[in-house]
UniProtKB/TrEMBL annotation:
Coiled coil: none annotated. This is Pyridoxamine 5'-phosphate oxidase N-terminal domain-containing protein. InterPro entries: Pyridox_Oxase_FMN-dep (IPR024029), Pyridox_Oxase_N (IPR011576), Split_barrel_FMN-bd (IPR012349). The lineage of its organism: Bacteria, Pseudomonadati, Pseudomonadota, Betaproteobacteria, Burkholderiales. Pfam families: PNPOx_N (PF01243). It comes from the Bacteria. Residues 33-152 form the Pyridoxamine 5'-phosphate oxidase N-terminal domain. NCBIfam families: PPOX_FMN_DR2398.
Length: 206
């Protein structure tokens, strides 16, 4: 039985939302405009979305502001730092090179969206250029830019993301050790995991 409240065709969807405003169309370009380059240089955090044979993935990436390098107005380089070796994003890119990036800038309501196609590179010169604290990234992503536009500030403003009084007290939520202990049915010692975590993160940041 069909759900009468489900929207399943474009005409019905467009009837609800109406026409996009002119500015929302004019802001999209197929290259890295100098204004958009400034936003990328100011961003210390980007979310990478990918799609592969086993489904979707979205992964946070962060470093000092400007860590995503601008090669030219159609090309970005994103270093892949040390992680948990699941390499979900990289597996997906091998299957489907299409990627989406969302850049956040602390204190700024607007975000920047970049869509394109990525290649995984291990060029020694590129790896050296993106070393941090003497450690090379395992690989870098070269992203060929296909569309770029900024997202308005409403979501950030509604969420009060950058407001200190919105920050959650860490102790009010389950720790990663607690989560792992429960999901592993006790195979992982949660208390020990939490105790070891700060030192492990500090020594394996890069």
């Amino acid at each position: 039985m069909s759900d009468p409240y489900q929207i399943s065709d474009l005409e019905s969807l467009e009837n609800i939302y109406g026409e996009p405003v002119v500015a929302s169309l004019k802001k999209e370009v197929n290259y890295l405009h100098p204004h958009y380059q400034q936003l990328i240089k100011a961003s210390p955090f980007v979310v990478l979305a990918t799609k592969g044979e086993d489904g979707l993935d979205v992964s946070p990436r962060g470093d000092p502001a400007g860590f995503v390098a601008i090669v030219d107005d159609k090309t970005l380089i994103l270093p892949d730092r040390r992680g948990n070796n699941r390499i979900d994003s990289l597996r997906n890119i091998i299957a489907d090179p299409r990627v989406a990036l969302l850049f956040l800038i602390p204190g700024l309501g607007e975000t920047l969206r970049v869509n394109g196609r990525a290649r995984i590179l291990v060029d020694p010169q590129l790896l050296e250029q993106h070393a941090m604290e003497g450690k090379l990234p395992r690989s870098v992503l070269q992203v060929h830019v296909e569309s770029v536009f900024f997202q308005c500030s409403r979501a950030i403003l509604r969420s009060r993301l950058w407001h200190a009084d919105s920050h959650v007290e860490k102790s009010s939520l389950p720790s990663v050790g607690t989560i792992l202990a429960d999901l592993s049915h006790g195979d992982i010692d949660g208390q020990q995991y939490d105790a070891d975590l700060p030192a492990r993160i500090s020594t394996t940041m890069y």
